[in-house]
Amino acid sequence: MSIANDLRRHVRGRVQVAGDAGFEQAGRPWNLAVEQPVLAVVEAADTHDVAALVRYAGGAGLTVATQPSGHGASGDVAGVILLRTGRLDELAVRPEQRVARVGAGVRWGRAQAEAGRHGLTGLAGSSPEVSVVGYTLGGGLSWFGRKHGFAAGGVRAFEVVDADGTQATITEETDHELFWALRGGGGDFAVVTALEYDLHPAPQLFGGRMVWPAERAPQLLETFREITARAPDELTVWLSLLRPADRPPVVTVDATYLGDESDGRSLLRGFERVDGLLVDGRRRLRVAELGEITSDPTDPGASVFRAELLTDLDDTAAKTLLAAPIDPLVGMQLRHLGGRLARPSETPAGHLAEPYLLSMVGIPTTPPVELAVRARQREIVAALGPYVSGRKPFTQLAPEEPAALAFPEDTLDGLRAIKQRRDPRGVLRSNHPVNPIGLP
């Protein structure tokens, strides 16, 4: 009997294998530059489907990799069953308790729209298309991380299917070990079908994007350094050098402030003194509009991404970043971190001592362009030298980078020990497994 027939006997959701119409499309990740040579794709109809699939895979000696939205895919899925959880789309906000419950298929845009109706916000990032569950399992770097820390730190409970196919509710009280691992250690330890997380008051929210021509980069980077050096935890500022395909290069400043408009404008006043402002999109924002600030892609596309944590952004580091055009990259971004993110947390994500995150992205339109993009990323990192710490947030790992880069050694050892105890047969696989591929 074929695996397709086997799977269709065990699950009610859609099953696709090689040769089926739409199989290649169903297996594609968000980043189309990543290949996913999966054995089959299963779109779970409900949590019972998830449990049945995991039990089948365990009995057949197969592996399941879960991707709610396809973000963060690494390509390490040869011969595995790809589980899609988009139909697990329950969403409930309990405003009196400041708690949201979301299924694994819920994306941040929808979750934020519902929370915002009650003057509340989750700890969302820049993209409204990323799944809440996938993002949170990797820690979750939010616009409001400086104020409230990693998104994973606010999880109250997980609904899971473990590596034996058993459904359970996991809290710190019911299973401290697994609860700890899931709050930022990735998806290696159980399939999360839903989670409950804290919401935070956001009665007033100010922010948006400002745009200048590229030649203003030196003044803007200096202003960025000055403002972030004294920014309160409620203020988050990101600076980007962008090279759009059909327009002149620009510098953008993206900001959010958890507070009233007048205070937000005052804190960002330095940017208004830089000549040449082309666009000022700052305004009072609704929580539902948070995902519009950076205009992140809303459809899958190919990209080559690399991120690095920076230990400082002094004169030398700033000059290094602006020493040459970013070509052939299409974007280079600096995110200000610090605040609560720099303080210890009770999650595998730990804390980020580094005050800035640098990300670099290019579009691999042809193989030579891809090689040139990767070479430029290496050149920038090499030039920065000691300013690059070497550690990376889990959700900022490039497809080819191992989970080991995201955790201190003792944390990684702890996660690997939990993986061995909870899934010794290697039935489940994260986008970035805590153990090297080939080991359970």
UniProtKB/TrEMBL annotation:
<dbReference type="InterPro" id="IPR050416">
    <property type="entry name" value="FAD-linked_Oxidoreductase"/>
</dbReference>
<dbReference type="GO" id="GO:0071949">
    <property type="term" value="F:FAD binding"/>
</dbReference>
<keyword id="KW-0274">FAD</keyword>
<keyword id="KW-0560">Oxidoreductase</keyword>
<dbReference type="GO" id="GO:0016491">
    <property type="term" value="F:oxidoreductase activity"/>
</dbReference>
<protein>
    <submittedName>
        <fullName>FAD-binding oxidoreductase</fullName>
    </submittedName>
</protein>
<dbReference type="InterPro" id="IPR016169">
    <property type="entry name" value="FAD-bd_PCMH_sub2"/>
</dbReference>
<dbReference type="InterPro" id="IPR036318">
    <property type="entry name" value="FAD-bd_PCMH-like_sf"/>
</dbReference>
<dbReference type="InterPro" id="IPR016166">
    <property type="entry name" value="FAD-bd_PCMH"/>
</dbReference>
<dbReference type="InterPro" id="IPR016167">
    <property type="entry name" value="FAD-bd_PCMH_sub1"/>
</dbReference>
<feature type="domain" description="FAD-binding PCMH-type">
    <location>
        <begin position="34"/>
        <end position="202"/>
    </location>
</feature>
<comment type="similarity">
    <text>Belongs to the oxygen-dependent FAD-linked oxidoreductase family.</text>
</comment>
<keyword id="KW-0285">Flavoprotein</keyword>
<dbReference type="Pfam" id="PF01565">
    <property type="entry name" value="FAD_binding_4"/>
</dbReference>
<dbReference type="InterPro" id="IPR006094">
    <property type="entry name" value="Oxid_FAD_bind_N"/>
</dbReference>
